[in-house]
Amino acid sequence: MEILTEKIRINPKKAVFYFISGFVNKGLGIFNYIALPVIIVIFWISATKNELFPPVILPSIAMVFTSLISQISSGQIFQDVLISLSRVMQGYGIGLILGVFMGTLMGISGSTNKFFSGTFDAIRQIPPLAWIPLVILWFGIGETSKVILIAKASFFPILLNTISGIKSTPKAYIEVAKLYNKNSWKIFRQIYLPYALPNIFVGLRLGLSSAWMTVIAAELIASTSGIGYRINDARNLLQSDVVITGIIVVGLLGVIMDRILDRILRELTPWNTTK
After folding, report:
1. pLDDT confidence band for 137 (50 / 70 / 90)
2. What are the extents of the domains in the chain?
3. Which of 117, 168, 238, 246 is such that its CA lies 20 to 30 A from the CA of 31?
């Protein structure tokens, strides 16, 4: 038996074209990602160099960098980050568990959805800042009040997206699973969860953003520690370089944690093409 082999000829011009196209596309992707930060930095340098704003309003990049190095050297920034991060993780963890649990129940059960949806919709409309005085009155100015505020802020984005994900599951798949006598846990794990995961992670990312906004707001108003407190203290002392340093640190922490969630989603849902 003869085995016929055919030589595959590669057109050098096409190979070069594809290589250049791929390189250009990657370059454009990187440019699009960094274009806005570069524009902001250029405006910042230009504004401070031409003294469009006084240093107390807009400090130079050098002043902010010096402030960052000073806080790193003293260890103050690490202490503030750990305190705020601890509060975020506690409140966010509670919001995550309750949001996914209640979202699953409300997505699967229409009666449960009707029972809770009206009350949840009303509570959801009230911004976190409006809850701060009442929560402090009930639970004091300690850690409990901050964790509760963060949990409330992160709960609703996770809840709503979990409900949406559960409801997007094709009903036909559920009926087939019931025909094969699959129990409720297997139906949830093998059918509901794979369809709901992308939506759930959208809620997790939105909830994380809400958690950071809330912890900073709570620390600005009622705290003696954390990044929010440091920003507020610097504002009272007209130390705008310290304020901007705190803002940048919060932004970087949020981006890192968001990228971690995005990476976890990609690993858990390799079939999902909408990521």
Report:
1. confident
2. 10-52, 61-268
3. 246
Mean pLDDT of the chain: 83
Q: Which amino acid is at 47?
A: A
Mean pLDDT of 176-181: 80
Which position has the token pair 């009155």?
A: 137
Length of the chain: 275
Q: How far apart are CA 211 and CA 149, in angstroms?
A: 8
Q: Map tokens 């981006």 to a residue.
A: 255
**Tokens encoding 191:** 């059918």
The amino acid occupying position 235 is: R
CA distance 192 to 169: 6
Number of alpha carbons in the 13 Å side-chain half-sphere of residue 9? 2
Are the C-beta atoms of residues 81 and 249 closer than 8 Å to each other?
Answer: yes
Could you name the CATH architecture of 61-268? Orthogonal Bundle (1.10)
Given the structure tokens 């407190």, which residue do they identify? 229
Per-residue pLDDT at 135: 87
Among 126, 90, 118, 100, CA closest to 204: 100
